[in-house]
User: Fold this.
Amino acid sequence: MEQRIAAIVAGMTLEQKIGQMTQAEISSITPEQVRKHYIGSILNGGGAWPNMVKHSTAADWSALSEKFYQASISTEMKTQIPVIWGTDAVHGHNNLFGTVLYPHNIALGAAHDPVLVGKIANHTAAAVRSTGITWVFAPTLAVVQNPRWGRTYESYSSDPQLVRAYAKAYVEGLQGNLMSANKLRPGQPMGDHSALATAKHYIGDGGTFHGADQGENRANQSDLINIHGVGYFGALEAGVQTVMISYSSWNDVAARKNYGKMHGNRELITNVLKGKLGFDGLVVSDWNAIEQVDGCARAHCPQAINAGIDLVMVPDDWEQFISQTVKDVQAGIIPISRIDDSVTRILRVKMRSGLFAKSPILPQANPAAMNELDYDRDLAREAVRKSLVLLKNRKNTLPLKRDSNILVVGIGADQIDRQTGGWSMTWQGTENTAADFPNATSILNAIRQTATGTVEYSADGTGVDVSRFDVIIAVASEAPYAETKGDVPFPQSLQHSDRYPADLAMLNRVSGKGVPVVTILLSGRPTYVNDLINRSEAFVAAWLPGTEGQGVTDGLFLNNQANSSQDFQGRLPFDWPGAACPTASRSSILFPRGYGLTYARSRQVGRLPEKRAPDGCAIGAN
Ligand code: GLC
Assistant:
């Protein structure tokens, strides 16, 4: 394989090499432009669909992939090089209309089940491949230190060892036999229902100061390795083929060495990742991230390429990037050896993916794709149930009897987007209605399908005579968000009801009236909810469960057989804050990582202090 690659590279012009190092967005490039400019890769951003038709079918995705693929192998190059398509399938194939959305990573972290994670990756690969795509920008290996970060839910846990185990399981699940085959016969492509994985975002994305997205990680070298680097050991061990660089920067304050933005960090990308760790796949930049490197512009950054980035995600300005970079090489600013290394890595990964062997398009009619959805639904439902963490359960309020008369309150019970969060049909997970999730089950509908007594719904609990009910199920929730838009910027407090006062108002209307309240919190992060917990007899952290709401009711109700109940197994993947402005001291922690009640092993949670921080947090708080 290596000789074959060297021969292809030797036969390429400079324009063809730089085109191969370019990744453009499908809404900003046509198949003909991919052919004309020798483009190596395309992506669909969150909220981009074929021809910008949101309800495109798998066949529509495949048809577009076929067009890009055919164009890419119709150049006048000596050897045709197929284009590769990458997508953010971070909790299922989340841009595909009608698909099953799994719980986000924070929920999977609560399940503490690497086998489950491997199965989810395996089914995600099958779903992505059914649309002609062979590369997934996952798993995120951030080891989040501060829940202020808008991407906390994309992290499995603050426990590096759990992230390492999950990294290995996810990469092996997604890439299938790739590495074992390659050990036997190098170049042996991965299977038809596998996809390339991406270890991201290298390195230290989850450890920025105050959890600011794209901010500064001030860890010392030991913590950078032993906290933020551990997931990469798992991913590399599993043979991950691509690594995406982090927007964040590293300032090793202890060593008085400020490396600046990761996208310009030659020491960590080339010397450590490619050198010491022996990574032989490709390094891809993040969305327009090269513009953040000192002295760089959105379409022009020799520093990033000289740092070791092989494929540049320059979604819209790809033409300018190519012409600028060709000039940089001609002027000797970027050595041709660096370019040849990048192209060699890109070709190596494409050969391993099977793209050189045959088209990425699979026959649509294959029966597996048809009931793939059923498998996915059951798997997702199991994942939801396993991810639920029971934080409080006074007077054995849970499990619920199916014949209870139930009042359900909270818009989170009825709005699917509160279950699915960001990266769901759109980038932010907003601008969606129930019609965008035709196969989803809301928590309210799951309750209606499970309970045999009366079930009534009120968005906010006004004007309801609660005495008519045996139990109240209240769903508190965060609105969907992704990346920076999800940050809780310092000095704002981490109190949920400061950002969502309607949830506290709702509980004030229905609690304390002699009818037990079971509160379900839908959130992308642990937050300060002492006030909500005090107004609940039982309290469950359900994270962002995705489309399968029945997984929540599976955890709440006695199931059919002989009134046995599936006990809770979820345990907190992060410390749960006991203050509106958590500090580094353990007194800020209400429930430590690993906490989770079960029916077998319960404990009382008494009245909790309710100390707001309406004017925000003081310096010194996290
Ligand atoms: C985003 C994210 C990254 C994602 C990429 C492509 O900005 O940082 O995780 O894979 O762009 O959508």
User: Anything to note?
Assistant: Residues 43, 45-46, 88, 137, 200, 286-287 surround alpha-D-glucopyranose (CB under 6 Å). Residues 2-368 form a domain with the TIM Barrel fold (CATH 3.20.20.300).
